[in-house]
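Reminder to self: keep the SMILES exactly as supplied, no canonicalising. Ligand is S-adenosylmethionine.
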Amino acid sequence: MILHEINFNEELTLSKVCDTIRAEIEKEPDFLPRSSEPEVGPFLFQFIQLIQAKTVLEIGTFKGYTTCKLIESGVKVTSVDIKDQRHSLVKELQKFVKNFEFFEQDSLDYLRKCRDSLRRFDLIYIDGDHDLDHVKKELLLLSNVVPSTGIMVFHDATSANCPGVIQALMEYREQYRTDFVVLPTSRGCGLAIL
Ligand SMILES: C[S@@+](CC[C@H](N)C(=O)[O-])C[C@H]1O[C@@H](n2cnc3c(N)ncnc32)[C@H](O)[C@@H]1O
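Structure tokens returned for the bound complex:
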């Protein structure tokens, strides 16, 4: 689906556009194995209100399923994913949504740039590369990019096929004397919040 197929002449709210896009992505065959569970976006949406986040970063955009729910919250949303042709929709969305930006970049490169430019995000949702070494590097950079009042949410904390996520979080907890909680999700992937 492309955004041009949506009739913007109708009285469309941002939430209606986002709902339409999410419904279209749900019909695609790679939705189930690749996108975060449908409840994750609404959960993050509520979290944004709860902590009164003004800025949100998403790592691992994929087709923009969770991104759309974040955008709907109305806060400034930044999403990052490595170069891939699947991002045509989010690239288009950027032109329509003032508070949204998308970067086609490796997450570590993007986070280094944020660290060096002192850019900070109140809420960061991480669902990118789940390899242990990558998540460990990500965690170190993230700690410079999230303020002390900020929150990080990791997807796949309980996924059997992504053991690197929980392993990296446990090593980080041990080393930096911090803690996290894990919440179950409908497909068993789990969310870790720290
Ligand atoms: C499981 S999908 C994310 C699904 C997304 N959260 C959703 O709800 O649709 C993982 C995404 O991470 C991206 N990714 C993998 N390695 C990455 C990296 N090093 N930097 C940024 N994104 C990466 C992949 O291209 C893929 O689109």
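Points to follow up:
The beta strands are 55-59, 76-81, 100-104, 123-126, 151-155, 181-183, 191-193.
The mean pLDDT is 92.
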